[in-house]
Structures are given as C-alpha cells and as structure tokens.
Amino acid sequence: MTATPLAGLTVVEFTHMVMGPAAGGILAALGAEVIRVEPIGGDPTRNLIGSGSGYYPMYNRHKASVCLDLKSPAGLDAARNLIAAADIVIENFRPGALDRLGLGYAAMSAANPRLIYCALKGFLPGPYEDRTALDEVAQMMGGLAYMTGPPGQPLRVGASVIDVTGGMFGVIAILSAVQERHRTGCGAHIAASLFETTAYLVGQHMAQFAVTGVAAAPMPARLSAWAVYDVFSTRDEPVFIGVVSDAQWPVFCRVFGLSDLAADAALARNNDRVRARDRILPVARAAIGALTRAEVEALLDGSGLPFAPIRRPEDLFDDPHLLAGGLETVALPDGRTMELPALPISFDGNRPVRAARLTAAGVDEKRGFTPR
Fold first, then answer.
1. Is the dihedral of CA 20, 23, 26, 30 positive or negative?
2. What is the number of structural domains in the chain?
3. Are residues 25 and 112 located together in one domain of the fold?
C-alpha cells in the first residue's frame, strides 16, 4: 500500500478554526485532493496571533484554496460546481448556515447522490444542538477540564484535543461512508461533535463511577492504579517513570538498586504495592533523586520500563526519533519553511510524509482559481 491511499477522492471544505480543518487535513495527508473555500480576503484563522498562530499551518497543509463570496450569485454558483464534482464535503459552521445558502446536504445531494456530507458541530441532535461550542466549552461541560485540573480548579488540556479528536471522529465517519458507498452507490449525511467527543473521552471515568459507585477524582488527586506512576525529580531535570505490571516491578527495583523492596514478597502484586505506595515512593524518590536525568535515562533505556523526559513542544523540533521520519517540511505562502508533525501512522512501513505547502488565500494553482 502507498502512503497516499485516498488519492482520487475530492474533498471540499467549508471550514474554519481547528475541528473542520483537522478533518480535512488528515484526508489531505492521506492523498485526497482537498479544496478549502475561504471568504474573500482569506480565512481569518490565517492571521490569528498568540495561541492561535499555529492553527493554519498545522491543519491546512496539502490543501488547495479558493476565496468565494457566498453571498453573491457568482460565488454560490462556484461553490455548487465544486460540490457537484466532489466526493466529500466537510463543514463546521453553525447549524443551518450552509442550508440557508442552499449548500446543505438536502440540496447538494439531489445534484450529487454519491456525495458524503460531513457536518462537524458543537453538539449532535438534542437539547444543546443550537448552542455555539468551542473546544474549551466542550472540555468544561464534558468533564475533561474537571478531570485535568486540581480539585476545584478546572483546567483545559494544553492542546486543542477535542477539536482534533472530533475531527478524527469525523474522518472515521467519512471513511465508513466511503466504504458504504462502495456497496450502495449512495452518499450519506454524517456528523461528529465536540461535546459527544468529550463525553467519549471521559467515558472511562463514567465507567469507573458505574462500576465502583465512587466518583473519579481529578487526575492530580486521583488514586493511581499503580504505585510507581509519577514524575520523579533528579539532580537536574525531572523524568516520568511507570511500573504497570508485576513483571516490571523487579526490573524497576534492580535498575535502581532497591533490593529491600524487591525482596519483600508482600509487594509482589500490583494492588498490594498501591496500598503500600506511601512506603515505596520515598525510597524510590531518594534513589532516583541521587542521579541526573541522563543517568536515569541510561539506566532505563532498554529495560522495558515506561519512562519519559519532560519536554516542551519546541523541544520536539530536535527530537531524534521525530527527525527520523516524523516531521515534514511545510512551505508557507511567504516562502518560509517549517517542520511540523506528520500524520502519526504508516502503511507497510511507509510514513505519509511529503513536502507540503500552504496555498495563498484565493489561489488554487492546480485548478486555476482566482479570487472572486
């Protein structure tokens, strides 16, 4: 299999911000031809500053772009022509926005019965469906922010995880509809959402309550399932270490010279170690704290124990593993280039990594579009 398995599929995006572009970006990275319809002057996401300044390059590489005035007859005609020739439409505007323009599924599928129309929204049908949602709104009302921060201090996760994961669920639905279309010849109207995505992600905590009758505590205050599953201080920089099986316990003790703990038969099983956590951790912290991070990593590398240095996002540009194939070069419209994470999958050992560029607002060189 090649690293562009979706070559031959045409996708038209009416999207903005992160959720919709992330879904289209995944399809584009897998070889689909993706055309973004932007407003005259370009998608405002192109010009965000601060925490939004990376949205556009991260989620819109590999795509073509055209600026259309969807309030004009000419712009609407151009949009209809794009959809008529498309396999897939992705949109993440407010419910009903494209329907009011005559670009909704009902109108477009009449002209293109094979059309797969993916709506990415804040909520699936229900009492909340007309509300405006954002990643942070979903994290707050879906319980994820509560689980992330200390008790009483809800904290959003440090990336747009709901936007991106919601887009991924959209891609799952799209590819399922493509497979169904192979059998039936018909398209479909599919949807994914931010709120339901959040509920799915915190489902493990809902299940914990259903199983035990005890509400899950926020992650900083949780009772861990393992005795050793922590960030440990070293002589210089911290490191995370986990011991998540009975087989890993004697390895951990051997690596750090904890012979007394290893010899204690009462600590051989995981749940007993969790109960003895207050005894184990001070001894482990003292042994690890006497070493540098480099020394700890040298001991752990090849041991089979899970461990990780504590990195910042900017550190990943120099990560040797990512440099071995996990980054791809993205050319910006102004001529600058940057390295960004490639799609984190492979096909027969081949990564879908290729040179990527961001199309300037309003210009699709492949199709010859110019701004309207």
1. negative
2. 2
3. yes
